[in-house]
Design brief:
Blueprint lengths: L1 H31 L10 H19 L3 H28 L6 H22 L14 E3 L4 E3 H23 L1 H9 L3 H6 L4 H27 L11 H11 L4 H21 L5 H15 L8
Antiparallel strand pairs: 1-2
Helix pairs in contact: 1-5, 1-8, 1-9, 1-10, 2-3, 2-4, 2-8, 3-8, 5-6, 5-8, 6-8, 9-10, 9-11, 10-11
Length: 292
């Protein structure tokens, strides 16, 4: 009985930590999909690109994976701004954002994956850092550093962006741009410019999300990003579009449910059960946990 209780406690705590990682990789989609109504299904590919940046900087320059991706964030930000400008000129300005816009991001996902395969092959790549292995021993329970550090990183990212969105003019404009662009223009703000900034921020978060991914998974290869497309969008929908606190609750819920399922029923059941929870929640509350 004691063994089962210990297993349950460890599964719940590991699930909570896993939820922090899910929040770290989902926050960019929460901005693009939740606030801008841009279905960027290529976002996991940019997260994976962040993982490879962390890998290259760690292996060839000896940099800490998280520090390397922090340094790379401005480049991801500029890439996001350029990508949105292409999307705006080709689709949004013509009011043709639905199917063709989705195809645009699908094409980027495919090109990014093929490019990474050509550059790195299909071999597994990993990084070295003090938190990649080992545990924080609290006597009652041991917390793996590879989950604890990404959990903290995810909370810092969510908290920082929540402060930015609620306390700055640009942040409030980003929240308003998908709701009433005419009112935004009356406040002397250019909706296109605001969206460009927001999409740049969305991709900048992918850099740090990449560091979290390679730390948690420990070994990455180019096709692994596809495994997270469904999870990331499910978390954003479950939490409520545009709600960062709701996204965190959804990420933690999904992490705990997946971990409990994998522990007691087997890993193959985890995706089915977690998406079952998503469907049940949306049936009861279609707007999500903290949706408007």
């Amino acid at each position: 009985m004691t063994g089962s209780l210990d297993l349950l406690v460890n599964a719940v705590i590991s699930g909570l930590l896993l939820g922090g990682f899910y929040a770290a990789v989902s926050i960019g989609v929460a901005i693009s999909f939740g606030l801008l109504d841009i279905v960027n299904i290529a976002h996991p590919a940019f997260i994976l690109l962040g993982s490879y940046v962390a890998y290259l900087a760690n292996v060839y320059l000896g940099l800490d994976p998280i520090l390397a991706t922090v340094i790379a964030m401005p480049f991801f930000y500029l890439l996001g701004m350029a990508l949105y400008q292409i999307y705006y000129v080709a689709f949004e300005r013509r009011d043709d954002q639905s199917l063709r816009g989705l195809s645009f991001f699908f094409g980027i996902l495919f090109i990014a994956e093929v490019g990474l395969i050509l550059a790195f092959g299909v071999d597994l790549r990993s990084v070295q850092a003090w938190y990649v292995s080992g545990n924080l021993d609290l006597r009652v329970i041991e917390l793996p550093w590879r989950l604890l550090v990404p959990f903290a990183l995810g909370l810092v990212m969510v908290g920082g962006l929540q402060l930015f969105l609620s306390r700055t003019f640009v942040g409030r404009a980003i929240q308003a741009v998908a709701q009433d662009q005419q009112a935004l223009r009356l406040m002397a703000a250019n909706p296109t410019k605001i969206k460009r900034i927001a999409f740049g921020i969305s991709l900048a978060t992918a850099s740090l999300g990449g560091a979290a991914m390679i730390i948690v998974i420990q070994a990455i290869e180019p096709s692994i990003g596809r495994e997270y497309i469904g999870r990331i969008f499910a978390i954003c929908v479950l939490g409520g579009l545009g709600s960062f606190p709701g996204m965190v609750i959804a990420a933690v819920t999904l992490g705990v449910v997946e971990n409990l399922t994998a522990t007691f029923l087997g890993p193959s059941w985890a995706p089915a059960v977690s998406f079952g929870v998503l469907l049940i929640t949306l049936a009861v509350r279609p707007s999500g946990i903290l949706g408007r």
